[in-house]
Write the structure tokens for this entry.
Amino acid sequence: MHLEHIKLEQLTPCAVNMRHTGKTPDVSDILPSIRARGVIVPLIVRAGTDPENYEVVAGQRRMTAAKIIAEESGQIEPLPCAVMESGDDAAALEISILENCARLDPDPMTQYEAFAALKKQGRTVEDIADTFGVTALTVKRRLALGSLIPAIRRAYRLEKIDNESIKSLTMASTKQQRDWIKLFNDKESFTPTGMRLRSWLFGGKEIDVGVALFDLNKYQGTRVSNLFGDDEYFSDSDQFWTLQNQAIAALGAKYKKNGWQEVHVLDLGKSFYDWEHVATSKHDGGHVYIAVAQSGAVKAYEGYITEKEAKARLRAKATIDGSVAAKPLRPEISQVMQNYLALHRHAAVQVELTAAPKLALRVTVAHMIIGTDKWRAEADAPRPKNDAIAASLKNATARKAFADRRKTVLKMIKLPEHQHTLISRTPDAIATTQILAHLLTLSDSAVMKIMAFAMAETLAANSPVVEAVGNHLSVDMSKYWKPEQPFFDLIREKATVNAILREVGGKAAADGNVSSTAKAQKAIIGDFLEGRQGRKQVSPWLPRFLQFPFKSYTKNGGIGIQEGWEQVKKHFNDR
């Protein structure tokens, strides 16, 4: 056999393992220890059918505990594993490893002292690892604790300092360690821990080596890493940005070479918002936008143009070879009207989705598999295009109903009911474990209700997914929308106004006022809806634009909402 650390995602239960029954094993007895100190006893694994993966022959409970911790914190270190060679006997290997580990005190500081004593005697890291049946990396991590001042080591031995903070402290100078432990022992002072501790050490300018686009050999400054060998940062941020910007420029040139019409590098820290752009393929002249975060991370968004550019291209299509071609049909719905409709439809579907947990589960799983720009556990907060739409949404029945359901869900998981969103914007492993602990006390049906609300809150507005869910649920928008002035103000096409008049007042009323202005026809529509001027009241009334599925009044049709549904409805015709 040989020992190595293997990533959790590369490990799968072996079919011959006695615990490979489909039922999750009980790990409550070992979970606290592994959460505090990590996996010490190596798993017994063998090569899987995929050369990148391994099957766990012995140690499934340790692997299960590691998965739970990974879900709590969002990450976990690779696990120590004994990889079986051809001819190895798994039972004999496990007995040997357990005998070795029985000689190894579980306390990390005691392990450090034992390993350090052997190191002073001239034993190599590999010798020490073989003696105790652990990996060389485990030995190196324990020896790294020697860089800490005694006061910090004592606090760590007493489990007063968490593992994430200890990793960061191994990067600190002796003076920084003394300053930190002084804060730690002062109950009146704020002590940075975990991720905040790293920012405290670097003055908030830490840049992870992993975000670099350039060849690391070009960087001539020093790189600071914790002595566990897990995290590494650039010490010279100026040099990093010089090299990173060169690499970004090269990336842009590569896109241009590959046929993209334009490449735009956004200002540092500026976000790219897809709702301000129109998706356009490379073949149709789409552009590439490169966003650069303050952290140094770079993300390219391929195949977009601005709304302004999209409109300009539509106008340009009216002229071919210098001669004016047939004027393109003007869309029935403006961008601003689409914003109004999309936000009201989105709000209604959100409310209905919270009451359909089985569908929400499947929508959630689909998002997990395919991905979405909202699947960062981020509540969707679509921006109205003007104050009138903002006021309309503020008073919308669906928005108020959704806010009430949010309070109910927040109360279920014992969070402050005044929170604006269920979904937190700031990842916090401790808070996650607190929520998880409470969720474990709730029934499956209660958890499903919470999950349905979370899915609804992260559902992206103005998306074909909203249309798919709304149509599947047959959402009745009349429950959430009543005729209001902002809606009629946004109708710009006279033909649409006349069609609506025909719908609410009949053919005679529409034909009799066909030459009247759109403003006058809108007033007559209002008379029918309110029962004024001797008109027979029409109530309830729901415009086609807000029905599921979406319908238009003229052959010009809508734009994004209708087109998005047209593209995906074929997948739902037989459901």
